[in-house]
């Protein structure tokens, strides 16, 4: 045990929804973060070996297990091993099998060696409606989506606007998590996944500037000096579609790490010495106006 | 050459079902017959130590896990009486008070004040309405850290010393560490992620399940139950050469009294092709007592944990009347055929854990698809547990050449719970349908799934023959099978499913001289007394292996 705690991000979703594709995108823009990637190597697409090599990421293979009849749960052993050597990487990303439930795995985020990261559950625009209606796996897909902090709608290029709307509506029956969708090659995956609060030891600092891209927009808001409860109260009333917000807030009570991960808010104290940052917010283009109104509300309340 | 005389030798071999003696040479059976008949083979020493005993083929436990032995490094506190590797019987703890009393006694005998106290086997399903919490364990010790693993393996209860040392009361509440009305953690830690919050305790408990002493205890428990061939059904990481080296060293020791067939579980391993190559390659590492080359799939969870996948009508509602969801898939149903095909095409044998009947449907569909694409005679792929497998499924299994290994022990250990809580009286009576399996012509074995229930083929057979529950019910009288059928299932039936019936499982010329040595004749006693038949020990490759306390 090194004492260092690293964020644990979980990527779930049924077979073939693009989980590995997302992991590869993440690895292709790491900003220096050293990832330990746990993958189910029986998947159709493998994690790009060259990317792993070039970014110094660690790849560990994992399958589903259950303790009901054997303790043969491949994950437990892997997590003990990772917890023992958290000095070797900055962030753990776990790609679940197509039937893995994200919740029980994400809870490792509070075990020694880890802090909670993002639980992303992917759904493919061209299949999620059928999957949810499937007599064998519909309930599993529903439970997976219910565990999401943030749902990612993939393969939107394979359906028309109406198809995407139907997919969104189907997902919305399972969760109130926001749904990130867009040309997936261009979504800011690293900004969404990376936690980067100082003191938990990620490789990169919180950048106060995530450039906007197609389909999404960003804002940086200075909330320093405010009471942390006021910050929380204001975050509680954010537009429902905000994907992500994060920063090291210099609150009246001292520095705090503030994370909004989809529908979840996580606030913890940061070391006194931590460098503070503005709060960076990432949201889809459509919420632009609501986002500005919400930010105005903060400014007006000061 | 040596002749063992006995009160009776039951061979499980049609050509000569019973005899009075068996001639053994170089670890193999030369002949069975009368003493006179055996003398035809030449000079042989007569060993009459079993003159008042009954010999059967050594029992074959075709579904067990080595952590059965590892558990005994710690204090047992389950509901049923359970015998440890030295033969000592630990009475069941029938209330939380009795659990606490047990732990107080053990705690008092511990020398090192800083050592944690680990216990296992707790099953709150038997104490309805009452849950073990930290406050109970604080009565055992306020200073020593205590970690009690539940029988399900899905949760543990710890005392306040652990809660404080691990800072579990700090920070916001969360699902893995539930809190009571007072806002303090109750002491329950849910799932591996929750148990891992107890600092070093869970890794140390988990790793102790696979200790060298645990493997040795596994062998001891088997011998004490009359078993000469065990399985480690996919609980050990065989991809790790260090793990295999340990098993090799331990099983090579002549005092290790049992053969073990080690199954590879793809939950530990690399890509599918690499796994297939690995298992094929491992066959070369097999020895007389250590076998590799088979594969275990785990496709769903357990019925008592409500995680097995059930066909309609699914689980009974909760006591509060709420509908329960279906269980969990551990492998995507769409992927089962692909995985099976990879191992099947390489000529490997696959045993698939399917507790629920919906899971059996998925596996049978996969088998049919794979066999259509890649026919292979005599594959002996096996459905493990088969707890809710229905008559139509058994008929299909017969047509597909599949075997059934039925979890007969469940009738005793959870039969009343299945009747009252999980699936209700009708399906509870149909569970573990050994008679239906035999009637459909499906090759049958039966198992304990040790450490889930204790090793003990006589107990397993007793369950299938009597189907009695702890409350005294006969649960599904029509699914009872005869004593000869049950004993065949736990000898030859197991050997067949491990593809070892040309070596073990019956007593006839040329087979290994592996015997179970019993105090009474199970064919002659009241079937209700089957589980009480004393076990002297075993003979392994012609060498007597007395149980502890016997000689
Ligand atoms: N057209 C299109 N294809 C995509 C998109 N995302 C992923 N794919 C493709 O979908 C297929 C499955 O993607 P994977 O990344 O392997 O999906 P997965 O969830 O990791 O799959 P499993 O691990 O097998 O469950 C691959 O062929 C990808 O190239 C997308 O946004 N658009
Ligand atoms: Mg994948
Ligand atoms: Zn098992």
Q: What Rg of chain B, in angstroms, do the CA atoms define?
A: 24 Å
Distance between the terminal alpha carbons of chain B, to the nearest Å?
Answer: 21 Å
Quaternary class: heterodimer
Query: What is the CATH architecture descriptor of the largest domain in chain A?
Result: 3-Layer(aba) Sandwich
By DSSP (H or I, 4+ residues per run), the number of helices of chain A equals: 10
The number of helices of chain B is 19
Level-1 CATH class name of the largest domain in chain B: Alpha Beta
Task: Describe the overall structure.
- The complex is a heterodimer of chains A (302) and B (551).
- Chain A is 29% helix and 25% strand.
- With 302 residues, chain A is of the alpha/beta class.
- Chain A has 2 domains: 6-193, 3-Layer(aba) Sandwich (Rossmann fold), CATH 3.40.50.300; 216-301.
- Chain A starts with 5 loop residues before the first strand and ends with a helix.
- By secondary structure, chain B is of the alpha/beta class.
- Chain B folds into 2 domains: 67-207, Diaminopimelate Epimerase, Chain A, domain 1, CATH 3.10.310; 210-538, Metal-dependent hydrolases (TIM Barrel, Alpha-Beta Barrel).
- Helices cover 31% and strands 20% of the residues of chain B.
- In chain B, the strands form 4 sheets. In chain B, strands 1, 2, 3, 4, 5, 21, 22 and 23 form an 8-stranded mixed β-sheet that branches. Chain B has an 8-stranded parallel β-sheet with strand order 6-14-15-16-17-18-19-20.
- The model of chain B has no long low-confidence stretch (mean pLDDT 96).
- The interface between A and B is large, with 44 and 56 residues.
Compact summary:
With 302 residues, chain A is α/β, with parallel strands linked by helices.
Characteristic key phrases:
heterodimer; A: 302 residues; alpha/beta; Rossmann fold; 2 domains; seven-stranded parallel sheet; 10 helices; B: 551 residues; Diaminopimelate Epimerase, Chain A, domain 1; TIM Barrel; eight-stranded mixed sheet; eight-stranded parallel sheet; 19 helices; 20% strand; binds guanosine-5'-triphosphate; binds magnesium ion; binds zinc ion
